[in-house]
């Protein structure tokens, strides 16, 4: 069967910038554009040149993209020609391969928002599209509020789409601007529009206000469109846009679409999708959505013991696609619900070999249940579970022994007459026969403690120089005056490897310190650092187990 070419249009840098809390810098935009380009996206909408200095600069030079770099803006104002409209001129002067105009296609919006006649709006569409086409640009028209407009006045909404197509637009994009249209409505309306405008010239731009943006995009595809617009990780104003991070693997891996359509993203590039998704979150300083389809850390996680047994024997039972196909990985969560199957599978994944009949496995299961009763949670703390298992198996050396630590928090007036808080930590550790004392200040007690602990570890210092604390989470496991605090800390090294450790205590500083020391021990163990003999002091071992 001959497959139809389907084009992907990314608007992360324009519509995604409307997300609450998202503010792209120019280096951010350039980095994200190249991520998208390397992935294989066909169109990258960079922003609105002329509307702000950042976007104007972004479009002032060649960005070296293989994708069609697209500028976004309004059609000409009523009462003037396209040649005399400064907004249109800014779009045509931009270093862009394509121009995407936006125009109202709902008669109510034309009268209310624009305050012009319906014919004036059609003239603006025709003249703007024709002007851009005459300058050699590929032209798109986003028909804003198309589905609401079509339901209210189908003849006028269709007239807007036709005006653009007949004036030379390569793509007429039907927008569900408020995200309120449902899939069955999208499929019906797109099917009717496709009788007037060829599907090879139609696109869909769906918002996610009813959690239907991906479903609406697929419904439009079935009805005939050949361009899908969306954003990475579903960024966008209000509830976001159609999530390309979900759409791309669906189009490539599900036979209903993969057998009918070809896209610019290859199966090889699909294996980078999880990394790209998380790189975007890293650039935006956002915590990744652990439950995101395909790319979330929980997307292929199994917790229940019966399910875990089935996953071990036949992964396809509970995985709709192989996790490796999108660059993700299988995760069998270890918890107080876990049986031997979960633990064996997780140990195998972490590279810890143990026989199913090994009596230490029962000890590990018992220790795990005891720990979780105290408030520990290993579902998101692989490194701490790895260390717990290795300690039960008797294969974790004592690299260093913490003899004591103290943290002081002081609030005082600084030299500028401002009231400020200062934190200072002191840590005394023993490495072999060497006693080491380090002190450090930080912007908080945990930061000060982390800095002091990693300031001098003697012969192991070179192994931890590249460590970076990238995430810190606190949860009150048990409320009241006897509250228990659970701390999760995530570290990253220069090679890009990340790991998470957990600490639990009634004292948040003590819980944090447990997680910090586990993180350093994990790094030294994985790096193959030469260990000392078992260090003195019963606290070192008994406190851990």
From TrEMBL:
It catalyses: pyruvate + acetyl-CoA + H2O = (3R)-citramalate + CoA + H(+). Pathway: Amino-acid biosynthesis; L-isoleucine biosynthesis; 2-oxobutanoate from pyruvate: step 1/3. Its EC number is 2.3.3.21. InterPro entries: 2-isopropylmalate_synth_dimer, AIPM/Hcit_synth_CS, Aldolase_TIM, Citramal_synthase, LeuA/HCS_post-cat, LeuA_allosteric_dom_sf, PYR_CT. It holds the Pfam family LeuA_dimer. The keyword Transferase applies. Keywords: Acyltransferase, Amino-acid biosynthesis, Branched-chain amino acid biosynthesis, Isoleucine biosynthesis, Transferase. The keyword Transmembrane does not apply. Residues 6-271 form the Pyruvate carboxyltransferase domain. GO terms for molecular function: 2-isopropylmalate synthase activity. It is an enzyme of class 2 (transferase). Belongs to the alpha-IPM synthase/homocitrate synthase family. PANTHER family: (R)-CITRAMALATE SYNTHASE, ALPHA-IPM SYNTHASE/HOMOCITRATE SYNTHASE. This is Citramalate synthase. It comes from Labrys monachus.
């Amino acid at each position: 069967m001959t497959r139809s070419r389907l084009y992907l249009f990314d608007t992360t840098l324009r519509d995604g910038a409307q997300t609450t809390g998202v503010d792209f810098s120019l280096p951010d935009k350039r980095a994200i554009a190249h991520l998208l380009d390397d992935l294989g996206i066909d169109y990258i909408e960079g922003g609105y040149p002329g509307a702000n200095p950042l976007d104007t600069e972004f479009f002032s030079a060649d960005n070296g993209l293989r994708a069609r770099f697209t500028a976004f803006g309004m059609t000409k104002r009523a009462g003037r020609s396209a040649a005399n409209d400064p907004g249109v001129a800014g779009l045509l002067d931009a270093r862009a391969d394509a121009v995407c105009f936006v125009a109202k296609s709902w008669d109510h919006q034309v009268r209310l928002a624009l305050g012009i006649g319906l014919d004036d709006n059609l003239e603006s569409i025709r003249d703007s599209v024709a002007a851009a086409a005459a300058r050699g640009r590929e032209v798109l028209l986003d028909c804003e509020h198309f589905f609401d407009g079509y339901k209210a006045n189908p003849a006028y909404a269709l007239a807007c789409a036709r005006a653009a197509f007949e004036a030379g637009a390569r793509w007429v994009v039907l927008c569900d601007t408020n995200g309120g249209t449902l899939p069955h409505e999208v499929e019906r309306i797109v099917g009717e529009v496709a009788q007037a405008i060829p599907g090879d010239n139609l696109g869909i731009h769906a918002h996610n206000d009813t959690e239907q943006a991906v479903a609406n995009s697929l419904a439009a595809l079935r009805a005939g469109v050949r361009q899908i617009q969306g954003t990475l990780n579903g960024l966008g104003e209000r509830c976001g846009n159609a999530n390309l991070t979900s759409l791309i693997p669906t189009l490539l891996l599900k036979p209903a679409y993969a057998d009918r359509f070809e896209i610019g993203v290859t199966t090889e590039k699909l294996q980078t999708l999880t990394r790209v998704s998380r790189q975007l979150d890293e650039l935006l300083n956002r915590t990744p959505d652990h439950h995101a389809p395909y790319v979330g850390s929980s997307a292929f996680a199994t917790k229940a013991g019966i399910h875990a047994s089935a996953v071990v024997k036949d992964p396809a039972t509970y995985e709709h696609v192989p996790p490796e196909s999108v660059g993700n990985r299988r995760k069998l969560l270890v918890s107080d619900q876990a049986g031997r199957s979960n633990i064996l599978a997780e140990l195998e994944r972490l590279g810890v070999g143990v026989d199913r009949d090994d009596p230490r496995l029962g000890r590990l299961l018992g220790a795990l249940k005891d720990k979780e009763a105290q408030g520990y949670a290993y579902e998101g703390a692989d490194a701490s579970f790895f260390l717990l298992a290795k300690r039960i198996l008797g294969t974790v050396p004592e690299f260093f022994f913490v003899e004591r630590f103290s943290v002081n928090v002081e609030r005082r007036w600084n030299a500028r007459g401002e009231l400020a808080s200062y934190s200072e930590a002191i840590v005394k550790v023993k490495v072999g026969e060497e006693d080491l004392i380090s002190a450090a200040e930080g912007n908080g007690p945990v930061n000060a403690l982390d800095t002091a602990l990693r300031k001098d570890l003697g012969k192991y210092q070179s192994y931890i120089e590249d460590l970076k604390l990238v995430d810190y989470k606190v949860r009150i496991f048990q409320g009241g005056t006897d509250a228990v605090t659970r701390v999760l800390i995530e570290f990253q090294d220069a090679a890009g490897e990340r790991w998470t450790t957990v600490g639990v205590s009634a004292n948040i500083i003590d819980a944090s310190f447990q997680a910090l020391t586990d993180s350093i021990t994990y790094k030294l163990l994985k790096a193959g650092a030469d260990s000392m003999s078992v260090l003195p002091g019963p606290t070192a071992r008994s406190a851990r187990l």
